[in-house]
Amino acid sequence: MFTAVVRITGAGRLDDFRERLRWLMVRDEEAEAYTEHHGEGRLEYRFEPKKGIPFPAFSAASVDFPELRVEAEWERDGVRGRAVIESGRLVQDERGDPGMPGVEVEVSDDGRLVLGLAVRDGIGYAVTSDRQTYFRYRDGVLTLVSPDDADAALEDVAFAFAEEWLWYDEQEALVERARYAGYGYAVRGANVKSEKLALLRARGMRYSSLEPTAASAREAIVERWLSQA
Known about the structure:
Layout: E1 2-9, H1 14-27, E2 34-36, E3 42-47, H2 55-62, E4 69-76, E5 79-86, E6 89-95, E7 103-107, E8 113-120, E9 123-127, E10 132-138, E11 141-145, H3 152-165, E12 166-168, H4 174-183, E13 190-192, H5 194-201, E14 206-208, H6 212-224
Antiparallel strand pairs: 1-3, 1-4, 2-3, 4-5, 5-6, 7-8, 7-14, 8-9, 9-10, 10-11, 12-13
C-alpha cells in the first residue's frame, strides 16, 4: 500500500503553479496518475504511486514559485514520511525508511554519479555516470559479470535499484532534465533521480544502507573496478 498527498500553499500564484504542474505532468513519461482536491488558498494532489514519491514535477514547478510551499506526506507499507520543498529545494525531510536496503549512492558536487551500488545475497550491480557492471561476491572473491552475461537474478537487483534511484540519458525524462538544468547539472549516461538527489544533498551527497558483508563487496568493487576506469 502506497499513498501520497502533496499540498501547495502560500500567498502566491496558485493558479499559475497549477498550470505549470499540469504542463510538466503531461510531458513526463513516468508521471503517476493523480486526483485533484483543491480548496481556498491551497492546491492538493492525491496519488497511489506505483513507482515512487512524485517529487520531480513538483520540485521543478516550485523553482518558478518561491513564494509557495510544497508539502508532501506519504505512507508506504505502514511507514510514513514527510517532505517540504521551497524554491525547488528540499528544506525538510522526515521519513522512517530512507530507501531500499543494501544500496550505496554517492554523487559529486556537480551532480555526477560517482558510484551507485546494490548488493543482495552476494550478487550485485555497480554503476557510475558512464559505465556499469554486474558482479558476484562469495567468500571474499569478487567476480565481475558483463551486462551481456547477466542472469535473471542479477538483473532483478539492478532493475530494482534503477527503478528507485536512477534515470538514463536515453530516456526522454523531461521533468528530470528540467530539474537538472535548474541545478546547473550536466546530464550524463546514468543520473540519480531528482527526488533522491534532493535527499542526497541533505546528507552530504552520499547515502548507504549496506550491511558489513556488503561493505566488503563495496571495497572490492572500488579496488578492482572503480579505480580501474
